[in-house]
Amino acid sequence: MKELRARALPGIVGVLLALALEALAVYLFVRGATALDEGGPPLLGHGGVDLVVSFVLLAAGTVVATGLVIVQPNYSRSVIFLGRYLGTLREAGWWWTVPLTSKPAVSLRVRNFESEKLKVNDLRGNPIQIAAVVVWRVIDAARALFEVDQYEEFVKIQSETALRHIASQYPYDHFEDESTPSLRENTDRVSQALAQELQERLAVAGVEVLDARLTHLAYSPEIAHAMLQRQQAEAVVAARAKIVEGAVGMVEMALRELQRSGLVDLDDERRAAMVNNLMVAIVGERAVQPVMNAGTIY
After folding, report:
1. Best CA proximity match to 52, nearest among 28, 34, 36, 22
2. Of 106, 131, 163, which one is at a domain's C-terminal end?
3. How far apart (Å, rounded) are the C-alpha atoms in residues 38 and 31?
4. What is the pLDDT of residues 51-87, one digit of tens each?
């Protein structure tokens, strides 16, 4: 169901019409009652008709007054007459529309929904805790009212469902393959995917998703310690690899400069020994204790 624009007049029109009917009803009632009391010449059937018409006009005035409605800023009022949707009022103000209608209000303001910390499995099956905040608003009041049952609860359930699905599509972190997007390293990409999936799920309820962001991401307590050790081990390996790479470059430069300057002429065995000593001195975690050689190296 698509939202329609409801027809309405300013509220003062309905008030004046209701007051006119009520005033005419009072006038006819007084005239009819007076005619009956005096017992004079027939006046609309000795006042009986005046009384009947006055009650009808009184009821009509009351019915007219039921068409009055106030629309608050950033709210809408959907007009429903005997189960039939007639349209929606969006402009703030005092309006008079079809009498005897129900007019449920729907907020059009921007709202936030923050999910609880959900325990899900990532792409590799690791249990993680994840939470997100969703910024949304209603853009179609008719769909929000008639296409789903309790649209606010619908937004909550669908947001948590989409978050669970997105979390299962990515690993928490990439270990061997850095080209694979992860929840921790690619938060913008994950948030964009979450917002897109939410928009597809909530479009049926006339809801627009303005933003969706992860607010909490962590391993579950039962594996958090093991994963921390793994991350620390990976950091140590990466650091050692960088040190070795730099050490190799420094050894190459040292041998190249020695060969260029012609200070020493090293055979393969002595060259291997120097490379070993330099690598130990550069890569070793402890300070190297130098050994002074007073004789020849051959």
Report:
1. 28
2. 106
3. 11
4. 888 899 999 999 999 999 999 999 999 999 998 999 9
